[in-house]
What we know:
With about 220 residues, this protein is mainly alpha-helical. The protein has 10 helices and no strands.
Amino acid sequence: MVLEDYKEIVGLCAMYTTMAQMLSGTLICRNIIVKGSAKGVDPMPFLGGIGLSILMLQYAWMLGDSNMINVNVFGLLTNMIYMIIYYYYAPNTKEVLKLIYKVTIFVVIFLVYAQIEHPANVEFRFGIVVTILLFLLIAAPLVHLKQVIKTKNTEILPFPLIFMGTLVTFQWLLYGFIIDNVFIIFQNAVGFTLSIAQLSLFLIFPSKESKDGVLNKQRKED
């Protein structure tokens, strides 16, 4: 297979692009700090990122893939920092603590499962688990779809994360084909489709800030 000659290059590109995507969370945290409140910001991309990074790290160790290990160690650290910032500015810390508790229990259950499952089955079955969780995390912004359609405003959606997610899933999809891993291929094929669908919402329903910018520009021209 011709693509196999580019395995290291594609793997490194996917790894660094994923790290860049994880850093895009700094833009969301910056807005939180500027506003002085995390009100209106969904914590699940950060909290889900922590949980998924831990489980994906476990899966990467099973595969012995250094690129995936590096990415998920980086993802774990960055999302923990984002979550600390979110918690500091959260209007209701009790609700945040409840979410943290639920995610922690959820992650621990699957980590324990990975240790007690038969070695011959664990890679396949654990791969199914992380695939499902990845889909849920990528599709999380679609929870707000009803509100976006109702208000015709995408301000609530995390554009930096969605845009970078599109680039990331495409590159990991390519990497999955190279290493011939069905889970990585399936994860990122669906993830890429979901990301494209979410990006299309920004074209259909521009954010309030974008609309205001256009109106102000038109007023200046008039």
